[in-house]
Structure formats: structure tokens, C-alpha cells
């Protein structure tokens, strides 16, 4: 379907495949590296396929990325890992609806707080 954009982050590492991606992209590129790309008359828009990991209090420095949005038309922002809590709504023993995640289902508990650590709750509030 040639009406849809194709994204392949690997072209940054291997320019042999440059033509297969409609977007320039990297994971966790520094704002200065992104700006260097954008200042050099790029042929493709830039999207950070992953640039923040929203674990707890970990989105410091985000303003450096969002400032690029106003400065460069071809900067299209990016995606945040764990933007939304990874939990599902269940009814607990008391009949109350709560959000549950690994370890709440008598399975092996997950490692610390790696499921409900996003910027927004699982219900998107």
C-alpha cells in the first residue's frame, strides 16, 4: 500500500537500505544529533521512534526535543516508551474495579515497577 509511510530505523545504521524508509529515525538520538540532520537540507522527515522511557521521573530533558518542533518543519516529534501504563482493569475480591499487572494474577511477579510507570494511567486519564 503505497499510500502509507514506511518506517525502518535500521537505515541510519546501513544506508544501503535508505530508499525503503520514508522517514529518518533513530532511537535515543541526542537533540544535537537530530538538529544536525535537520540543518542539512534533509530529504525525509525525522521521527524519533523512541526517545524517552517514561519510567517514574525519567522524562527530564524533554524540552530539548520539543523545542525542535517549532524550529524545524521536518521534525515530527517522537514516541515515548511506556507513555501509557501497562495494566488491565479487573474487579478485585471486594468488587471494586482496579488496574492490575504482572504478579496480580498469581503468576511470577514482574521486576519492580516496569508495568505501571507511564505518563498516563492505563485508562488514558
UniProtKB/TrEMBL annotation:
Domain Glycoside hydrolase family 2 catalytic span(s) in chain numbering: 1-124
GO BP terms, alphabetized: lactose catabolic process
Top-level enzyme category: hydrolase
InterPro entries with a match to the protein in the record: Bact_Beta-galactosidase (IPR050347), GH (IPR017853), Glyco_hydro_2_cat (IPR006103)
E.C. code: 3.2.1.23
Catalytic activity: Hydrolysis of terminal non-reducing beta-D-galactose residues in beta-D-galactosides
SUPFAM superfamilies: (Trans)glycosidases
CC per GO annotation: beta-galactosidase complex
Gene3D superfamilies linked: Glycosidases
Keyword Nucleus: no
Cleavable signal peptide: none
Domain of life: Bacteria
Keyword list, A-Z: Glycosidase, Hydrolase
An example Gene Ontology molecular-function term: beta-galactosidase activity
Protein name in UniProt: beta-galactosidase
Organism: Clostridium perfringens
Amino acid at each position: 500500500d503505497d499510500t502509507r509511510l514506511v518506517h525502518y530505523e535500521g537505515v541510519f545504521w546501513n544506508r544501503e537500505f535508505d530508499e525503503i524508509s520514508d522517514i529518518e529515525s533513530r532511537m535515543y538520538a541526542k537533540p544535537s544529533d537530530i538538529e544536525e540532520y535537520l540543518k542539512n537540507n534533509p530529504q525525509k522527515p525525522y521521527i524519533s521512534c523512541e526517545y524517552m522511557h517514561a519510567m517514574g521521573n525519567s522524562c527530564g530533558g524533554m524540552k530539548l526535543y520539543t523545542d525542535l518542533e517549532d524550529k524545524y518543519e521536518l521534525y515530527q516529534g517522537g514516541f515515548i516508551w511506556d507513555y501509557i501504563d501497562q495494566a488491565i482493569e479487573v474487579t478485585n475480591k471486594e468488587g471494586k474495579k482496579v488496574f492490575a499487572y504482572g504478579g496480580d494474577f498469581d503468576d511470577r511477579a514482574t521486576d519492580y515497577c516496569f508495568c505501571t510507570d507511564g505518563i498516563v494511567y492505563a485508562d488514558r486519564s
